[in-house]
Amino acid sequence: MTVQQSGRRERKKAATRQKIADTALRLFLERGYDAVGIRDVAAEADVAVTTLFSHFASKEALVFEQDEDFEHRLTRAVTDRAPNEPLVPALRREVLALVRHCTADSAAPIWRMIDASPALRKYDETVRLRHAEALAAAIAADPALTRSETVARTLSRFVIDAYSLSRESPDPEAALDEIFPMIEAAWAAARPAPHTTPEPRTAE
């Protein structure tokens, strides 16, 4: 297969995925999440059910179509930050951008639907845990950050919780202004002590 053919195939695949996700979201918002089945989405999107499942592992995943992009943006805040840029401010900047996206007027009906559905709330929890683990792996893999895996995982949970709490706040940016100094303090407190060579013991 040539590069051009491969590129065309990937674009077609991405377009099909987006069409399915857009169709599902429209149906969910129009009829209610519980009233729409996988077969309804597939029929409306004019794809086979097997095609739908090749793009989305579950009905819940249709609602969280941008979840992989969310995860990539968080990990890139670590891996793509400027040389010598501190980690926590880079993460705050990305979290703020994500919160602004998720609190836009167009996103409000989607979050109301998620909050009203036990299945979607549970799925959202699993998604957040996965994002935290991916972020922790990126932090732990950066040799310049010199923190343990436990510290990386703890910080990542804090960051994901900061996103969730600020998204639910009437003033998301003010919420982040309150939360991130605590995250910064926790990160600084976990800094390894400077290595020193112990002085030789003398006989008493």
Question: Please, could you describe this protein's structure?
Answer:
- Helix content is 72%, strand content 0%.
- By secondary structure, the protein is mainly alpha-helical.
- Mean pLDDT is 91; it is low at 196-204.
- Helix 5 packs parallel to helix 8 (118-140).
- The protein has helices at residues 3-31, 38-45, 49-55, 59-63, 67-79, 87-102, 108-116, 118-140, 149-167, 172-189.
- The chain is built from ten helices and no strands.
List the keywords.
204 residues; disordered C terminus
Produce a short descriptive summary.
The protein is an all-alpha fold and 204 residues long. The chain is built from ten helices and no strands.
For the largest beta-sheet, the strand count, sense and barrel status come to: none
Quantity of strands, as a count? 0
Order of helices and strands: HHHHHHHHHH
**Shape, principal axes of CA atoms:** globular
Helices, by number, come to: 10
SS class: mainly alpha
Low-confidence stretches: 196-204
In which range does the helix fraction lie? Answer: over 70%
Strand content: under 5%
Mean pLDDT: 91
Describe the SSE topology:
Elements: H1 3-31, H2 38-45, H3 49-55, H4 59-63, H5 67-79, H6 87-102, H7 108-116, H8 118-140, H9 149-167, H10 172-189
